[in-house]
Write a structure and sequence with these properties.
With about 400 residues, the protein is mainly alpha-helical. It is built from 15 helices and no strands. Helix 1 packs antiparallel against helix 7. The longest helix is centred in the N-terminal third of the chain and has 34 residues, at about 5-35. It is globular, with a radius of gyration of 20 Å. The protein starts with a helix and ends with a helix. About 55% of the residues are buried.
C-alpha cells in the first residue's frame, strides 16, 4: 500500500481509537462517577444506555441528512464536535450536565461509525480493502487495550473529569493530523428516504442487522457492568481490574488479525464458532469468578471473538449494500449495535437492581444462546443464498 494511502488509514484508525475510548471509558469509571454523584451502579449505568440509544435514534436520520457532503469535510466536522463535548464533560458539575455532554458526543458518534469503514475502503485499492477495514477495527480494539484502561487510571489518579479532558485534547491532535493527511473523498450522492425500502428488503442485510441486535444486547448485558463485577464478585483490586480490561482489549487486536486471515475463506464456520464461543464466555463469567487467572482467560477469548464479529459484519455490509447506500447501511448497523448496547446495559441494570450483580453474565449468556440460534436458522441461510453457496 502506498504511503499516501497508509497515512490517512492510520489517521482513521487513530480516530476510531479515540471514539471507542470515549464510548466505553464510562464503564471503567462507573464506580467513581456514581460515588461522586451519590448514585448506584445501575443508575450511573444509564450514561451507557442513554448514549447508546441516542446513537441508535440519530444514526440513520443524520447520515441521510449529510449524505451529500464531501466525506473529508464531514469527518473533520465530526471530530471537532466530538472534542467540544469532551471538554464539556470534563467541566460537568452535575450528573445531568454530564449526561447532556455525553448526548452531544453521541451525535458525533452517530455519523462517525457510519462513514469510517467506508472511507477506509475507498482510499485504498480493492486489494487492500480488508487490511484497511481491519486497521480501523484494530484502532477500536487498541482503545480497549490502552484507551479505556489508561482513561481509568487517569480517572483514579486525577479524577474522572481529567479523563474526558484528556480525550478532548487527543481528539484535537487527531483533527490536525486528519486535516493534513486525509484526501478528499467525494460523496456518492444524497441517499433518498425513498430508497430505504429497497435497502431493507435485502434479506442478507436485514439478517446482519437482526444478528447484530442480539449480539450487542447479550454482550453488553454483561460487559457494561464488568468493572463493578470484577471488584465486588471476583475480588480484584483496582490495578488488577485495569489489567483485566487491558487483556480484554489486547485480545481484540488478535480478533482483527484472525478476521483478516481466516474470514473470507471460512465465513460460515468462522461465524458459527465465534458466536458459540462468545456465548460460552459470557456464561462462564460467574462460574470462573473465583479465580483471577480463569477470569482473565475468559475475558481474553471473549475479546478476540467480539472484535472479529464487529469487523466481519462491517465488511459484509460494504459487500452487500449498494454503493450509494453503503454509509446509510452502516448507519443502520451502528444504530442497531447501539440499540443493543443500550438495551444490554439496561437489562444488566435491572439484573443488578432486582437480582444481583452476580447474574449479569447468566442473563447475557441466555441472550447469546438466542444469537447462536438466529445465526443457525436465519442469517446463515440468507448469506448462503446471497453468495450462491
Amino acid at each position: 500500500m502506498p504511503l499516501r494511502s497508509w497515512l490517512p488509514v492510520v489517521g482513521l484508525a487513530c480516530t476510531a481509537f479515540v471514539f471507542n475510548t470515549s464510548e466505553f471509558v464510562p464503564i471503567g469509571l462507573l464506580t467513581d462517577i456514581g460515588t461522586e454523584f451519590n448514585m448506584t451502579a445501575a443508575a450511573t449505568g444509564m450514561l451507557i444506555s442513554v448514549y447508546a440509544w441516542v446513537v441508535m435514534i440519530m444514526s440513520l436520520p443524520l447520515m441521510i441528512f449529510v449524505s451529500r457532503m464531501e466525506m473529508r469535510r464531514l469527518m473533520l466536522m465530526i471530530i471537532a464536535t466530538f472534542a467540544l463535548f469532551q471538554f464539556m464533560s470534563s467541566v460537568s458539575t452535575s450528573f445531568y450536565m454530564l449526561m447532556a455532554a455525553r448526548i452531544g458526543v453521541a451525535f458525533s458518534h452517530s455519523v462517525f461509525w457510519s462513514i469510517v469503514s467506508p472511507m477506509a475502503a475507498r482510499i485504498v485499492s480493492e486489494r487492500h480493502r480488508a487490511v484497511a477495514i481491519g486497521m480501523v477495527g484494530s484502532g477500536a480494539a487498541i482503545a480497549m487495550v490502552f484507551g479505556m484502561p489508561i482513561g481509568r487510571m487517569i480517572g483514579l489518579a486525577l479524577g474522572w473529569r481529567m479523563t474526558f479532558l484528556s480525550i478532548g485534547v487527543v481528539a484535537v491532535a487527531t483533527f490536525i493530523y486528519m486535516y493534513l493527511t486525509m484526501p478528499k473523498v467525494p460523496s456518492r450522492g444524497k441517499f433518498s428516504v425513498k430508497k430505504l425500502p429497497m435497502l431493507l428488503s435485502n434479506k442478507a442485510l436485514m439478517g446482519i442487522f437482526i444478528l447484530t441486535m442480539f449480539f450487542a444486547t447479550s454482550y453488553y448485558t454483561c460487559y457494561s457492568y464488568i468493572e463493578p463485577f470484577m471488584k465486588e464478585i471476583t475480588g480484584m483490586n483496582d490495578s488488577l481490574v485495569t489489567t483485566a480490561l487491558m487483556v480484554f482489549g489486547a485480545s481484540g487486536i488478535v480478533g482483527s488479525i484472525a478476521y483478516s486471515r481466516f474470514y473470507k475463506g471460512h465465513r460460515y464456520t468462522f461465524l458459527t464458532a465465534l458466536l458459540c464461543i462468545i456465548a460460552a464466555c459470557i456464561l462462564l463469567v460467574l462460574p470462573v469468578s473465583g479465580s483471577v487467572v480463569a477470569t482473565m482467560a475468559v475475558l481474553s477469548v471473549w475479546g478476540v471473538m467480539g472484535t472479529a464479529f464487529n469487523v466481519g459484519m462491517q465488511d459484509e455490509i460494504i459487500n452487500i449494500a449498494p454503493q450509494d447506500g453503503t454509509s446509510v447501511a452502516m448507519s443502520i448497523f451502528s444504530g442497531i449495535f447501539n440499540f443493543g448496547i443500550g438495551t444490554g446495559a439496561f437489562i444488566g441494570g435491572l439484573v443488578c437492581a432486582h437480582l444481583s450483580l452476580r447474574y449479569v453474565g447468566l442473563a447475557g449468556g441466555v441472550i447469546a444462546l438466542g444469537t447462536v440460534a438466529y445465526w443457525l436458522t436465519g442469517l446463515k441461510r440468507h448469506l448462503k443464498a446471497y453468495y450462491g453457496a
